[in-house]
Amino acid sequence: MDFVHSVLPHIVGGIASFLIIFSFQFKDMRRLLFFQIASSALFGLQFVLLGAFSGALTNLVGVFLRVVVYRRAERGALPGETEDASPFRSPWAWGFVLLFLAAAVLSCDGLLSLLPPVSMILFVFAVWRSDPLLLRRLNLFVCSPMWLAYNLFTHAWAGVVTETFVMLSIVVSFLRFFFRKKT
């Protein structure tokens, strides 16, 4: 049994899994993004170790997306955009859409390999709005199911567990932040 190809990807994925699940328990967008940056980097490494290059490339671009969005959340705007610019009016958001499209073209290995970049293109528009509720809804109903299918296809078992728990974590966060009784 080769440790690097059979065990190490799942250890790395397990750590990434913990970080992303934990990230949805923060109401503050910057904290949520900080843990997602670390998680994306580790998931990218996991997919490299599994030879699943669509997931690896998509997570690499995802790391940079989250870093840029984190900086945007700190400053209110990026160079070339007005404060709180919609994703449709931001050259940065469109730049990331193009990067995810490039990742899709470079790593295309059938229809299932397109799920990660398509999921992340949708994620760009949600995360750019700096709206944690929209981000949670999109993840629950679109992005996580797409990643779940890709993880099953690539045998990224930590990713399968992650997406299941991410969806459960989002439901818990809805209960904690949006549906609890205000006193």
Walk me through this protein's architecture:
α4 packs antiparallel against α5, α5 runs antiparallel to α6 and α6 runs antiparallel to α7. This protein has one domain. The protein is 77% helix and 0% strand. The protein is globular and about 50 Å long. It has eight helices and no strands. It is an all-alpha fold and 183 residues long.
Primary descriptors:
183 residues; mainly alpha; 8 helices; 77% helix; 0% strand; globular
**Share in helix:** over 70%
- Name the poorly predicted regions: none
Radius of gyration: 16 Å
Beta-strand share of residues: under 5%
Global structural class: mainly alpha
Tell me the count of domains: 1
How far apart are the first and last residues' alpha carbons, in Å?
A: 57 Å
Describe the structure concisely.
The protein is mainly alpha-helical and 183 residues long. Helix content is 77%, strand content 0%.
SSE layout and pairings?
Blueprint: H1 3-6, H2 8-23, H3 29-50, H4 53-75, H5 91-107, H6 115-128, H7 132-154, H8 157-178
Helix pairs in contact: 2-3, 2-8, 3-4, 4-5, 4-6, 5-6, 6-7, 7-8
